[in-house]
Design goal:
Blueprint (H helix, E strand, L loop, with lengths): L9 H8 L3 E6 L11 E8 L2 E5 L7 H9 L1 E6 L2 E9 L4 H14 L6 H4 L2 H5 L1 E6 L1
Antiparallel strand pairs: 1-2, 1-4, 2-3, 3-6, 4-5, 5-6
């Protein structure tokens, strides 16, 4: 997928940076209705938005997002059409995303789970659509 022209604006990135969760709404196969609406943690790394599935690749919203690669997300009081792709699993990017999770969610009891192997594997790159 060519993502060079699909980037979040600086203003949109600020919305992601200033909110702890986004609501993930991946499409069903009909591409008109949503599989579910799930509040998830998100981070911004190098101008890109990422989110991890709590139960790794068995997370329901993650499975729908990777099957359809499209849906919507809600952050604060903003709704965005979104597309989803698996994150590049380079050691450098995984480390940056994990560091961003540690910085943003430092006080959360669930942090160790979100930076473990299963959720790290189930990292999505969230792009505007």
């Amino acid at each position: 997928m060519d993502t060079t022209t699909m980037q979040w604006t600086t203003e949109q990135l600020d919305i992601f940076l200033n909110n702890k969760t986004l609501t993930m709404k991946p499409f069903n196969p009909d591409m008109a209705t949503f599989e579910e609406e799930s509040p998830v943690w998100e981070v911004v790394v190098d101008g890109n938005v990422y989110s991890r599935g709590w139960n790794g690749d068995q997370t329901k919203w993650f499975m729908a997002a990777t099957a359809q690669n499209a849906g919507e997300i809600c952050v604060g009081d903003h709704d965005f059409a979104a597309q989803f792709e698996m994150a590049d699993h380079s050691a450098e990017l995984d480390a940056k995303i994990t560091a961003a999770y540690k910085a943003k969610y430092d006080e959360q009891n669930s942090l160790p789970k979100m930076i473990s192997a299963g959720p790290t594997y189930a990292t999505l790159h969230v792009l505007p659509r």
